[in-house]
Amino acid sequence: MDSPDRADFLAGLKPRGKYDGVVGIYRTNDSSNRIGVFDKDIIRALAQTGTVKWIAHNGAGYDQINVAECAAQGIYVSNTPGAVDEATATTALYLILSSLRHFSKAERSLHVGTWKTPISPGDTYDLTTRTLGILGLGGIGLRLAHLVHAFPMRVVYHNRHRVADAPEWCEYVGSLEELCRRSDVLSVHVPLRPDTVHLVGEREIRMMKRGSILVNTARGKVIDEEAMIRALDDGHLSSVGLDVFPNEPSVNPRLLTFPQNALLPHMGTETQDSQCQMEVRALTNLRDFLRDGKGKDVVPELRNKL
């Protein structure tokens, strides 16, 4: 794509424009820096070409694409599940480790020459024997479960449905409320959709044990940020580990006032291995669409719609 801005991109989709005849699109989130997200206006412009039928998105999360409008316009969307599991799960593992042991705070202390004087052993904990609650046992959540089992941590999870191939030591709980009550650390692994905005809110956070930890490598808006900050302020949450934020790249400055927090700038898939796997999987979906009429990774909302 060589469009410098949104207006140029939309103009290129018109008859005899630079994108005339395009049938499939390979999309990365980086394109939003120039043309914005794939909202209703862009999806309708794609549909008006009469030829675009497939958007191969490079990424597991596809909240930057208006999937409902794609369904209405007869355009398929694929993503890259599985390709991000290892990199995102190890990011969550780091955030759990750092939040329990205050490693991020300790590293900053070393950099400013105060050694470990700000760290109190009474405020830090081992992973062993702690209970990890996983909200969403998909590929990322399941990989994280296997990683923490090595310590071992106790693992409980909540999903819309029980996961058939979950290991026997991974205990299913039937409600989000029970998951919150039982977790020393709650790690969030659900996609951002209208029904998951603030899925973890004031009520859910207050159901967690006093002094527990909240970790998020999914999407920032899945957690009610204001409720989370209030819980940090009064000590109900001892710390949080965040790789995602509601209004990236902006970060709420109040989160920076809690030195025990472990905060990363959306590093979940920032590895050469993960980027390569994502690219190959996205392009494979596009190839399969061109060759066979359909790629394998159609997003769930569209599997039975088109």
Verbal overview:
- It contains eleven helices and ten strands.
- The protein is α/β, with parallel strands linked by helices and 306 residues long.
- The strands form two sheets. It has a seven-stranded parallel sheet, sandwiched between helices. Strands 1-2-3 form a three-stranded parallel sheet, sandwiched between helices.
- Helix 5 (85-101) crosses helix 7 (139-149).
- The model has no long low-confidence stretch (mean pLDDT 96).
CATH class of the largest domain: Alpha Beta
User: Spatial order of the strands in the main sheet?
Assistant: 6-5-4-7-8-9-10
Structural class from helices and strands?
A: alpha/beta
Our estimate of the beta-strand percent is 5-15%
Mass-distribution shape: globular
- What is the tally of beta strands? 10
**What do the pLDDT scores average to?**
96
Report the major sheet.
Answer: 7 strands, parallel
The helix-strand sequence is: HEHHEHEHHEHEEHEHEHEEH
CATH architecture term of the largest domain:
3-Layer(aba) Sandwich
Helix share, percent: 25-40%
Q: What is the count of structural domains?
A: 2
CATH superfamily of the largest domain: NAD(P)-binding Rossmann-like Domain
Unreliable segments of 5+ consecutive residues? none
Query: The CATH topology of the largest domain is what?
Result: Rossmann fold
The number of distinct helices, counting runs of at least 4 residues, comes to: 11
Radius of gyration: 21 Å
Distance between the termini: 27 Å
